[in-house]
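Budget justification, computational time. The allocation requested in the original proposal was used primarily to generate structure tokens for proteins on the priority list. As evidence of use, we reproduce two of the resulting records. The first is shown immediately below.
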Amino acid sequence: MLTTFDSFAISLLVTLDFYHVILWIITSKKRNSHAMNLIHHIAIICSDKDAALDFYVHKLGFPVIRENYRPERDDWKIDLKLTESTELELFIMKGHPQRLSPEAYGLRHLAFRVSSVEMKVKELAEKGILCEPVRTDIFTGEKMTFFHDPDGLPIEIHE
């Protein structure tokens, strides 16, 4: 049975632990305030507004946050919601060069984590999006495959 002193000691330890946790949270946020630990957005240049919206919004299911026409550039900037903290920016631009190869310098592809590659492949096929054969990543042992957006950008799904 706990004595009054024991109860007081336990209460004090719990209070001190709570205090130290709060102090740690405050100081760790200050310490990491300049850390690059989340992706804010990913920007993709697209050639056709209707095709891009059909693909990214209607087929992949990313909701539109903002849609803005920029008359000074004669293009569109459309922001889509990926997660609570990450957006996908679509820039619809005329007359830009086509992507020659995903093996060129720069962004190679986008990769999305899914719970089941096979189920996502089936879902995409029902929407008219064809995927490469499912394979196993030789380094992680996880299933993966690729498909392409209307402008040929490779998109990976990975378990």
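The second record produced under the same allocation is shown here.
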Amino acid sequence: MKKILQLGFVVAILMSQINCKSGKETQSENGSQPTVGEPKTMLLEFGSGGGVTGAYTIYIIHGDGKIFESSPEVKEMTKVTPITAKEAEVYFNQAVEAGMKEMKYNKPGNMTKYIELTEGDKKYRVTWAYDGENPSTPIKDFYNDLSKLIRKQKFADQ
């Protein structure tokens, strides 16, 4: 019995190694689930949610300007009208200027907002409660700018 357990353990480890993905991150063809990306991939993710359901609405802006949304009503990622790569670069620069790389702020609450900047394999995340202590004004203003962008781009879809 002990040998069977050991063999099962070895097989499980080997299978996990075989199933590991390469270092490349891509958006799935149908846009349903973004994956991590190439080592220098730039992603800007932000969203809000929580409460009784724990559901979040999430937006992801890629460095090339593609935008995806996931909401409690829709179980998979859906495309939002993209922006240009130059426009995306402006938002990534704003994230850095707002202090995303330096700020260590993780104070979620019942209802929470967050912004996460991904540069390759590095992630910078700021999380705060709707009704609690808030992060710096530049971070809140940046979150509002991102929200305005999404409203504008979703309106462009109609």
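A brief technical remark on that second record: The helical segments are 2-18, 85-97, 137-156.
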